[in-house]
């Protein structure tokens, strides 16, 4: 059984943010000793002088070690926490492939699926008023995932890795952004597998109107 000696640390985040939740899920999955500090980004809590002293970028999630050192950016935090665990493949190529998906998630997935969800759910925007590229490029991203998952259960090395945790965070709630996961059955099945592996409740897969 994997066990890592790591001092207790703090995770600052907002539980409506998939980028924050994936760090919390990973820490819990690994049994790490953490203190979660809720930062309400909608009320400006990430822009206070106190928080900006920790992260001048004013963004969450943020990991703070007991020695005062801090680490930002969700996928960097995931990699730090999971070092040496089964969530990071030992094979150099598989590890690099996992990193490929982590970069892809932030560049080609989150900017469309997460942003469209945020606009509809938190900013009361009408779907008809949104940039149509958010829907088309989000669906394209889901299509890329579908092709990857047609013949495999997980993204890399036939095991749960950080790639799955990073990608499931916003994919499992994509219906809140108007993306119908029924059009991507392999993705749907994968979401359920990852939710089960992380002991998460099923987020639901009934899409809103696009």
Automatic annotation (TrEMBL):
Residues 7-89 form the GST N-terminal domain. Gene3D superfamilies: 1.20.1050.10, Glutaredoxin (3.40.30.10). PROSITE patterns: GST_CTER (PS50405), GST_NTER (PS50404). Signal peptide: none annotated. Transmembrane segments: none annotated. InterPro entries: Glutathione-S-Trfase_C-like (IPR010987), Glutathione-S-Trfase_C_sf (IPR036282), Glutathione_S-Trfase (IPR040079), Glutathione_S-Trfase_N (IPR004045), GST_C (IPR004046), Thioredoxin-like_sf (IPR036249). SUPFAM superfamilies: GST C-terminal domain-like (SSF47616), Thioredoxin-like (SSF52833). Residues 91-210 form the GST C-terminal domain. GO terms for molecular function: transferase activity. This is Glutathione S-transferase.
